[in-house]
Each structure stands twice: as structure tokens, then as C-alpha cells.
Amino acid sequence: MRKPIVTFMIAIAAIAFLTLYRLDYYIVKPGHAYDVSEFIDSEQLYAHEGTLNLMTVAMQVATPLSYALSWFDTSSDIAKKTDVRRQDESDKEYEIRQEKQMADSQFNAKYVAYQKLGLKTKVQFEGLYIVHVVPKGAAEKYLQAGDEVIAVDGKEVTSLDSFSKTIASKKENENVALTFIRQGKEHKVTIALKPIPNDAKGRTGLGVAYNAAQTIITEPAIELEASDIGGPSAGLMFTLGIMNALSEEDLTKGYDVAGSGTMNLDGTVGAIGEIGKKVIAAHRDGMAYFFALATPLDDAYKKSFPDAQTNYEEAQAMAQTIGTKMEIVPVSSIDDALAFLAQLPPK
């Protein structure tokens, strides 16, 4: 009787190891197309026949079993943890960085869309947003990713530049007083500055990475709710989606349009990763057109990475591989995307 029990326990342990043990790899698969209009809420919205879709990839931490199975899935890739995460970045910091990138993407999309439509916006700087705390740095025991610093030495933080200059003006062991918001509550702390661990320039400081915390007030008011999606790559499609939602004319002419690319405040589109996976997902979900960044790579980058391709070239290659009828459309700016949509015949 004892032997079957031991065998059973060994089997349970083996199954648990194969399915639960977390490897330092990620499995990356095609995700899905999501109609941007589903994320938009405003009192002034127009419904249209066509759709503008952001694209996702599915990413999960690999286990021994999923790692092995991924070798038999031609649409999956294996990525090292170091290719996805920053050095010393915790699970929480990675999640917060993804959320912050999405928030910034939505901010830029609102700004550009309203500028193109000639509508009013007002930008408010709120402070700075902590995205990473360096282990063994001065701020390790006091700050954490997600904190919003609103004052330094009793003075309101009015820009990233003013904050960095205040910190840079101080010496090792000199104190800095910070006021910050964490989970809706205000906190105050005094931190003695010290050398930043592993800093190539040997600087003294708090040992934190941060971005601007800012809000945009629009007229008419509009909200984007996409809390389950992270990263900056939906910027282009958010911008187009907002414009379409606030326009009586259907920019899509009735077609299902997808794409991927970040949106800069000047209206230019930025590169994103895993565009091949997004092309596969768009094809599977029946998209007619797919926007991809075609801005040429600069010479310095091509010299360092001779085999590098633009997002458009990568997307074209994948489209040919899977034999899709979906058209890959090269763009470098929001204006390029709008010009393409404008010349489409009604469906």
C-alpha cells in the first residue's frame, strides 16, 4: 500500500513542477483585436459601421510544460525575462510601468486627437510618478513604484527638470524632504542622499526612475478605460478611435481597421515590438487593413543592428508568410493614417 502512495505523491509533485514552477522566460503569442470605441466614454459620441482596433499580444511567464509545448506552436516565441524586464525590476514595478505607459499613451492620443479636431485641451502637471526604485539606493525603504511625488523641500514640483535640478544640487548624506501620494493618501518623508548603486556616472541621488504625472482636461470631456491592457503601443489607434468617436463622418468608411504604434505629441508614430504577432491576430480577427510604422531606421541604429527592419517591413514579411489578404499600410504619422482612410471608397 505504501508504494502506490509514494508513486502518487511523486506524480503530484512532478505535475506541480511542470505546471507551476516559474522559469525566467516568457511565452509570447498573438492576442486579439479590440474595437477602440468600446473603451471610449463621452457625452458626445457617434456610432459608426466600421471599427478601429488596437492589437494585443498574449504574454505569460513560462513553466517547464508551457515552455516545452511552445516549441510546437509556430505562432509562439520564447523571450528571456531580461528582454522583457528592466534590470532589478520587480513584478509590481513591471506592472506599474506597463500601466504608466498605457496612461501616457492615452494622454498623447487625447491631445493629438483634439488638436486635429480643433477642440480645446488643457494640460495639468501633477508631479512625478515613480516607476522604479533601485535596490539598496537611498529611497529603497521610503518610496515604491506608483508613488506620486508632489513636493520637494516644501516646494511644489512644477516640472521634471526642476525636481532633477533640486536633487542634483545636493551632496552625499544631505537630506531631501519629499511629499508624495500613495493610494490616495499624502505622506511626508526625509531621505539622506547617497551614491546610486551601479550608476555609470557615479552620481549621488535618490536612486529612483520617474516620469511626469500629468492630466489632460478636454472639451467635450472624454474617458478611456482600458485597465486590462498595458504598454504604449495602442497610441495610434486610440488617437484614430477618439477622432472617429467624436466625428459625425465615419473615418473607416465601414471597414475594420487595425494597427499598432505609439503616438507622440507632435503626431508622429513610434515603433513597437512583436508586430508580427499582431499581424497574425489581426488576420485571425478579420481585419481589412493594418497600419504599421514605416519611418526609416537611422544610420547609427542600422550600423549596430544590420538585420533590423522597420515595423512595416516586419509586418509585410509576416503578412506574406501567413498569406493574408489584409493590406499592410505604411504610416509615419497620424496624418498618413488619416490620408489613407480619406481615400478609401465606402464599403
TrEMBL record:
One of its GO terms (molecular function) is ATP-dependent peptidase activity. Residues 95-184 form the PDZ domain. It holds the Pfam family PDZ_2. Gene3D superfamilies: 3.30.230.10. One of its GO terms (biological process) is protein catabolic process. InterPro entries: Lon_proteolytic (IPR008269), Lon_Prtase (IPR027065), PDZ (IPR001478), PDZ_sf (IPR036034), Ribosomal_Su5_D2-typ_SF (IPR020568), Ribsml_uS5_D2-typ_fold_subgr (IPR014721). This is PDZ domain-containing protein. It comes from Metalysinibacillus jejuensis.
